[in-house]
Amino acid sequence: MIEATISFMKQYKNNKLGLVGLGLLIFFVLIAVFAPYIAPYDPHQRFESTEHPSSEHPLGTNHVGQDILSELIYGTRVSLFITLFASIAAVSIGILIGLVAGYFKRFNFSLMRLTDLFLTIPKLPIIIIIAAFMRPSVWNLVFVFAIFEWAITARIIRSEVLTLRHRNYVDATRLFGAKDSYILARHIFPYVVPLVFVQLILVSRYIILAESGLSFIGLGDPTAKSWGMMLHDAFVYPTIFISDLWMWWMLPAGLCIVLLILSFMFIGYALEEIVNPSLKRSPWI
Amino acid sequence: MEKRGREKEKMKRIITILCLAILLCCAFYGISAAAGGATAAATAENSIKIEGGDYGYPTPFALFPKGPGYIRMSFIFDTLTWKDKHGVIPWLADSWSRSDDAKTWTFSLHRGVKWSDGEPFTADDVKFTFDYTKDHPQLWYAYNAKEIDQVEVPNPYTVAIHLTESMPTFIDDVAGCVPIIPEHIWKDVDDPYTFQEDDAVIGTGPLKLVEYDGTQGYYEYEANTECFKGEPIVDQLIMLDVGDPALALMAGDIDAASFMGKEIVAVEEFEDDSDFEIEEGSSWWVLNFYYNVGKYPMNNSDFRRAIAYGIDRADIVQTLTQDGSILANTGIIHPDSTWYKLGLPSYDHNIAQANEILDALNFTDTDDDGIREYKDEDGNTTALKFTLITSEEYKYEADFIKDNLKDLGIEIGVKSVGKRELGSGICCGAFEFAISGHGGIANPRVLRTTAMGTSRSEEYYEIYEKQLMTMDEDRRKELVGELQEIIADELPVYPLYHPKIWRVYDPDKLDAWFYTKDAIAGSIPLALNKLIVLFDSWRYDANEDGIIDKSEVNDARQDYDEDKITLEQLKKVLNLYNP
Question: Which residue of A52, A112, B44, B501 shows the fewest CB atoms closer than 10 Å?
Answer without folding.
Answer: A52
